[in-house]
């Protein structure tokens, strides 16, 4: 994704000054919500390496295969609980809208992933732990 393009996380900032620095390892997410947004953007730009690196080791899958046919369209943050720069844990409730890309012979599909995610901060770094989809 081009740095000047709007960031997929919906912040209104350009990707190059929003989530790209997290994806490139230039800085770390200061809050659970920042990590949530940057992880959503990583799904949108197909960055499995960042998703794996920010997944807590206790719940991280052995392999992460992203579906190239899914296009992430919009992220809405619904609620946050704790997850600030000095907290050890936090929760972020979100809705992530998706659709499938056109494929010959396959009807287009779409939907919303609604989840309350749990995050933990260890040694100053936030990690996604798990979530409840609803």
UniProtKB/TrEMBL annotation:
Transmembrane segments: none
Residue ranges the record marks as coiled coil: none
Residue ranges constituting the YchJ-like middle NTF2-like domain according to the UniProt record: 31-131
Entry-linked Pfam families: SEC-C, YchJ_M-like
Family, similarity comment: Belongs to the UPF0225 family.
HAMAP family: UPF0225
Name the record gives this protein: UPF0225 protein FPZ11_11820
Originating organism: Humibacter ginsenosidimutans
